[in-house]
Amino acid sequence: MKVVTTGMSVFLGADLVGGNYPDRSQFMADHAPVAYFVNRLRELRTTADGAVTERNVAVGGSFDHEVVAQYAGAAGKPYDIAFLGLAMNSGTVYGVNSRGPNAAFTRNVLKDFLVALKGEGVRPIVCNTIHMWPEKATPAGMAAALVEGIAYPPECATLFQHATLTFDAARGEITVDPALLSSGPGRFVQAGSQLRIRQDGGANNGQTMVVAARVSESVLRVQPGDIKESGTFWTLVQHYAPPAEEILVPPPSQQLQNKDWTGNGVAVDGLYSFSHWNGMLRELCEEVGVLMLDIEYRGFRWVEKHGWESVYVSTYAGQRFETFNHPQHAAQSVIYGDVMREAAERYQAGTLPNGFAVLRGPEIA
Question: Considering 219, 241, 263, which residue would you say is the last residue of a domain?
């Protein structure tokens, strides 16, 4: 039986223990999330069942759409099971809302990938994520992550498109089709906005022009000297560094939310963007007919009893070690390990669902 693991650094066991831990690299590899599944399965199977092997091709810092390339590069196909360790990076405001690999783009990529895996006879298992340490996600950091603009959700999208712009260097004015600024992403452009000319704008390419005033429905006045060449161009224009606090819903200042995330009557801190992306993953798994391990739920159940610090802080030989998105071994072995072991037991018993289901594992003490 052959298993392949794709995903981001959490699924490599990254930072499970501090830098002073003996044989740290080997310990982390041996206790990466899917290792719990593989090791438990090996304990349960007999020689007649055959060997269990795992290839871990997860990549630290990767976003969820990159599991496709990870799997494509994995030697040893065909595999029986493919784990997708998702959402720790794609669940951030950058991963969900930005002009980078945002939620809509990533969902489409993952849907095609899951359908393709099933078509090859591979059994995909999707793992969502615990949230990063909520208090470490600051509104300023979120705004900085959206400096290139907002793409998702569509109603919050900021200007990033080709349009006909007429530049008048002498007057310091840009004339556009009124529709560009009256509706859609252009409606967020106002005095103080920064417009970056990305391409096809002549000598204006690469310029960031600061809007001094909206003179009319079709005319913007920019700061003196911003326009380098007069003329009419079909140019790619971007609303750079938009005020995310005014545009994004919910805004960065309201992304951290304290509420009962699990329905068990205990309110704890969490992050809206992570919850939103985890929810989209669940909907996708239901649509495609894929099993999901609900790591988010298990993480919150742990936090309800032990707090966030216990997830991301550990001490060894008197040295404190802290991360913001790599769970420490004491918490990880329960949040991830216990549900992985249960999945292995149910797989061996023939009771692990082969279509859509949400597995939450045993209760957390």
Answer: 241
The boundaries of the domain holding residue 227 are: 159-241
In sequence order, what are the beta bridge partners of 56? 5
Residues 354 and 262 in one domain: yes
> Is residue 55 within 8 Å of 5, Cβ to Cβ?
yes
Q: What DSSP string describes 190-247? A: -TT-EEEEEESSGGGTT-EEEEEEE-SSSEEEE-TT-----EEEEEEEEEES--HHHH
Residue 270 lies in a domain: yes
CATH number of the domain where residue 196 is located = 2.40.30
Do residue 198 and residue 221 come from a single domain?
Answer: yes
- Residues 251, 200 contacting (CB under 8 angstroms): no
pLDDT (tens digit, 9 = 90+) per residue, 86-137? 999 999 999 999 999 999 999 999 999 999 999 999 999 999 999 999 999 9
SS3 string, 10-57, reads HHHCCCCCCCCCCCHHHHHHHCCHHHHHHHHHHHHCCHHHCCCEEEEC
- Whether 271 and 224 map to the same domain: the answer is no
* Angular region, 87: left φ>0, alpha ψ -120 to 50, beta rest: left
- CA dihedral for 305, 308, 310, 311, sign (positive or negative): positive
How many CB atoms neighbour CB 358 within 10 A?
A: 15
| Predicted model pTM | 0.96
200, 220, 241: which is the final residue of a domain? Answer: 241
Q: For 111, list phi and psi in degrees, rounded to 5.
A: -60, -50
